Amino acid sequence: MTDHVEVSRTIAATPETVWNAITDVTRMGEWSPECHTCEWNDGSSGPEVGAWFTGHNKNGEFEWTTECEVVEAVPNEVFRFDGVFGDLRFAKWGYRIEATDDGCIVTESWEEGRPPEVIEMTKSMSGVDDRVSHNRAGMEQTLERLAAAVE
């Protein structure tokens, strides 16, 4: 079974403003409660398919690093990336931006990609037992902080 979470929020900012904020991964720590720092990897400098970046995450006393590959980048509409470890695409993250009369609706999504045999090991790395509930709460906070930053 695949776990999937989506959280949406109306933001009083243009799709372009939101897109520019979301796709500047070096700013992710401003809104994410878990990912405190990101940087583009050598050879990548912006949101284009095939670009790679590294995210540094923290949950209490637990810290870990994640390599990510941009898999979809449609300016002002969609930004998606996969967390990658070797051949394993263990998490699929995305942002969808839909224009409205007063700004836009931003939907953040996460899809579980870890096979059952690695879930216990990753729980011990992150300290997160219930990834679905943890991510839902984090996504709500991320979109709240994003809105505060761009509105």
Please give a handful of descriptors for the protein shown.
151 residues, Alpha-D-Glucose-1,6-Bisphosphate, Chain A, domain 4, alpha+beta
CATH superfamily: START domain
In total, how many beta strands?
Answer: 7
Q: What is the CATH first-level class name?
A: Alpha Beta
CATH architecture: 2-Layer Sandwich
Order of helices and strands: EHEEEEEEHH
Strand order of the largest sheet: 1-7-6-5-4-3-2
Task: Label the structural class.
Answer: alpha+beta
Percent of sequence in beta strands: 35-45%
Q: Give a short account of the largest sheet.
A: 7 strands, antiparallel
Supply Rg: 15 Å
Could you say which overall geometry the principal axes of the C-alpha atoms support? Answer: globular
Rounded to the nearest angstrom, the distance between the terminal CA atoms is 38 Å
User: Spans with pLDDT under 50 lasting ≥5 residues?
Assistant: none
* Mean pLDDT over all positions: 95
What does this structure look like?
By secondary structure, the protein is an alpha+beta fold. It is built from three helices and seven strands, in the order E-H-E-E-E-E-E-E-H-H. It has helices at residues 15-23, 116-126, 131-150, and strands spanning 4-11, 35-40, 52-59, 62-74, 78-85, 88-100, 103-112. A seven-stranded antiparallel sheet has the order 1-7-6-5-4-3-2, with helices on one face. It is globular, with a radius of gyration of 15 Å. The termini are far apart. The model has no long low-confidence stretch (mean pLDDT 95).
Could you provide a short overview of the structure?
The protein has a single domain, classed as Alpha-D-Glucose-1,6-Bisphosphate, Chain A, domain 4 (2-Layer Sandwich), CATH 3.30.530.
